[in-house]
Amino acid sequence: MSDKEKYPSELAERFQIRLPPGLRDRIKATAEANGRSMNTEIVSTLAEAYPDPQQFMEELKFLDEIDEIQRKLDRKRAGQLAEVSQNFTQDFIDANAKKINRRRKSADEDDQ
Average of pLDDT values for 10-14? Predict the structure, then answer.
């Protein structure tokens, strides 16, 4: 049978290991709970413990891009807030503070 006729699993590298007592049973139980074969469970666990460095760097870059977007949004919001707050007059602030205080007093009285 040529390599072209083999299944991918037959072409995969094989590695035999010795497991300490009880580990095989724990792997089997976890694999069953996750609905996978023991081989898939082991490979998945190893891939998580030893991530592909290139993929890891790409994910870090993506997180950096998200952080930069968040910083831009924060600056935009701060600018909008500053612009809106410039339009507040002291009379507007005082009137709304009085309304808030009345609502708080009313809520406090309702609680008693």
Answer: 84
From 35, 34, 41, 43, select the one nearest 12 (Cα to Cα): 43
pLDDT in tens, 43-94: 999 999 998 999 989 999 999 999 999 999 999 999 888 888 777 788 888 8
Q: How far apart (Å, rounded) are the C-alpha atoms in residues 103 and 111?
A: 12
Residue position matching structure tokens 């831009």: 72
Q: Please state, in angstroms and rounded to a whole number, the distance separating the CA atoms of residues 75 and 70.
A: 9
> Which H or E run includes 87?
none
Residues 30/23, Cβ–Cβ less than 8 Å = no
Under a CB-based contact definition with an 8 Å cutoff, are residues 51 and 40 in contact? no
* Closest C-alpha to 41, from 52, 30, 25: 30
d(CA 40, CA 91): 69
**Per-residue confidence (pLDDT) for residue 46, from 0 to 100:** 95
Rg from Cα positions in the chain: 31
